[in-house]
What does this fold into?
Amino acid sequence: MLFLRFILFFTLCSHWALAQTEKEAITLLHNKQYEQAIQQFSALAKKDTKNAIAYFGLAKTYYEQQQNLKKSQPLQSFKYRNFQTHFDWLAQAYSHAQQASKWATNLTSAQKETFKSFSVSESQLQTGLSIAIENEAFSIISTLPYRNPFEQIYVSQVYNKEADADTLLALRDALHDQCNQFLATYKNSTNAKVIQQIRKDLFAEMLNPTTVRRYGDKGGKIYEQHCDLILNYYTAEELKNILPVFYGFEYSVEDLQKVKELADSEKITVLNLLCQLNLHAKGCGTNNKALYDKFIRKLAPADAAYLALQRLIAPALQQKNWNEAINNLKIYQPLFAKAGAAPTGNKIADQISNLILLLGMPEDNIALSNLGKTVNSNLQDYSPVLAYNNTLYFARRTENTGEEVYVANPKPNLTPNGSSNVSGNISNNILQFEPAQPLGKVNTKSHEIPLSVSIDGKTLVLFGNYSGLAEFFYVLKTEKRLGKGDIYYVNKKGNSFDKVEVFPYPVNSEDYEADLSITPDNQAVLFCSDRKGNVGGYLPNYPENGLYYHGSGEFNTDIWVAVRNEKGGFQEAINLGSTINTPFAEKKPFLHPDGKTLYFCSEGHSGFGGYDIFMSKRLDENLWTSWSAPVNLGKIINSPADDSFYISTNGEVAFVVADKTQGNGKLDIYQMTVPQRFRPEPVTTISGVVTDDNGNPTTAKIYWQPLGNQGVSNQNNKNTNNLPNNPNNPNSLNNSTNSNSNSTGNNPNANTTKLMKGGGGIDTDENGRFYFVVPRNKPYTYFAEKEGYFGSGVHINLTPNNLITNSLPNNPTTQNNNQNSNQNSNQNSNQNNNPNNNPSSNPNSATPTENLTTINLSSLDKTNKNRKPFVLRTLNFDHNSEGIRPESILDLLRLAAVLQANKTLKLSIEGHTDDAGTHDFNIDLSQRRANAVLLFLTKNGATANQLTAKGFGETLPIADNKTEGGKEKNRRVEFKVVE
It folds into this structure.
């Protein structure tokens, strides 16, 4: 008896405690402490799965949350709002309300009293809350302004066709899923037919290519993503145009007849057959693999059969089951090489052979490292572009505004050149980023995608619709010949970007252009276009009389190059030729700073499906159509999906966009270490600051030129006029600050400076800083140019044999470390053979840094008392010789051009030696060298009355002659402005 009393007491205590907990949860709900209330009610439901109060509390909490969120959001924002959070909360509320209704009859008297704390009627517990929740979900869908047909939306002027097209596409795609969610959640709803009609209306624009292209996914996947529903929604009469128009480019008449025969044998329509295959969206799975087998056997050797074969092996590739993929390829390969298959079939058979070889190769030791939540989101993140300082730009497909550009700054432990020693082993995910942010004013309500960034990081190239937006009206003043896709750029000004500008014709045209990258020397741009002259013929991108072609909506796009002209614009574009381009789509060209290695994406070369990434080498620096056979980057980097790739300056790190199950969202950006065999050739980065003669930073243009045998005699300089690109024009070097209204991107060629092959130029930033990259295969000189100023060039040796050894000094802040020599019979030549003074002679050297000093030629002291002499550090002489050496010529030609353009400018040329040898010998040697310089300058544009030459021998040292370093400084030729 005592035991029973204890049990009764314990039960009463438990019920009392439970009631207290229910009241506490209800109090939290009344106080709008929703997260805590959900925790309390969830704990109660877990403890008692039939607790109606707990379920009702959960339903009421989620419903109130949704109602409060709706009230907090301004009414005018409804037209751009994705209501997914609302639908999720309402679905949870409805599920819990149904549970509450189910267990309402189990309420005890005490619980009924507790229920009164909700301040609602008992009918709310039974059905009322469920009905309110369902009505709220229906009300949102039925009143959304973007649920109406596109034409109606635009006629009503609620939305702008140019600015809001991508936003509407994203919102309507989400709304379709929300309609599906409604029908799945509220199964017996009286509003189901209305929701089904709304869902059907959302597909109205998918019945012909014109409306799909205009309002839908231009890639063509959107129809097959929903084709099973569309085929159920519409009558055969409504669908009659889909087959010939959607698939007409992908199948010949003969092929379509074979498809019909296969459909008849399966006792389904042709559209149902193609929908079940779903070649362009879902692809091959266990449910339709048998149909793929029949389709391939029926249509081979047609291209559509090859596309189906790629889709068939995709699951094996995704699971890295290489042997299964190889076996399948071997099974079907004979079908493409059979009699009568030439030429297309045999070409496909060859591509299958290449695929088998690729799949049979050992796996590259590659680990794709997700960049994490600081960069990737639960949305689509793609199109990564890495600047030299490791700033990452990328695109994000947002829910409300289409595509936007985001920027992620590197964490501060990295060096600007991204070299492999910045934080240990490069394979250990060395590139880490701060949280990404939208990139300011380049983003609009339309879509923007970053395509590339110039080598110095100052010009960001964009794909966008700016010309259609009112605030960017000014771009049409630059170029009116714009078309279906256009390329823009924005230059960096300080720490932010300036206004958006458009590339002129022939880069942009009335056709489709995309995926532009600036060559490392800044002398050309590579881009994609569907213009006339493409390999395989003119098949414009996104035609209105066809949707699919070789598995995508890109049709035939090729890679083109446009070289800059002397006025800063572009020469006629050149197709890269049939080695690179195919009759199908190529895109995303990127010429590495080595100037030779091209990375690009292609559907037409032998690949795993979709766009694969390829590498090719430029075989002749004088030809844009001479390339090595493209190499597929292999089965780990490439996949059956559309792949893209962006490689760092040092060639060791690359970014890959992939749809992985372990990612944060639909598309994520991954980092990887590039296998050695896919890396570009080594490059050296050059950086520094341009200063004036007072040591203050100044803006200028930086040029670099390769050096070699320039055909110059050491005797009297007779052959100087035979120099490549010899600037004998008096205006060839002194107009470097004259800009051209057609200049585009970070363009230094709005002047008339002529560059040799392999040369290039950039602008400094506003603080005089510069950065450029050159291949490690030849010696270079680089120099600064600015109107009214002159400064010596700098040589850097990037050849294995040290052909030019007048290189950078150890101390980059010392301006006169590596000056010219005046040697006597007891002196060595001025060649500096100390490898420690030449950082680029080491293939693993750090970035050479050199400040360039310029002399203001017009504002110096007129009394001639305080005028500073300047030297040409490239001015070298052989032992006991006055002959001008080849590496000295470029600077002397530049100086001659300045004198020619400024007839009132007069210079004194003064030769000096160290104290070795006799005084008479030193005077004679220094005089002969000064005379040789004077003679060179007068033969190349200067006049005799502008120049005087005098040798001072050892009489005016600038350093102590007791050390070799001091002697070297004393061996020099100086120039002084005398008036």
Notes: The two ends are 124 Å apart (CA to CA). Residues 762 and 846 are 21 Å apart (CA to CA).
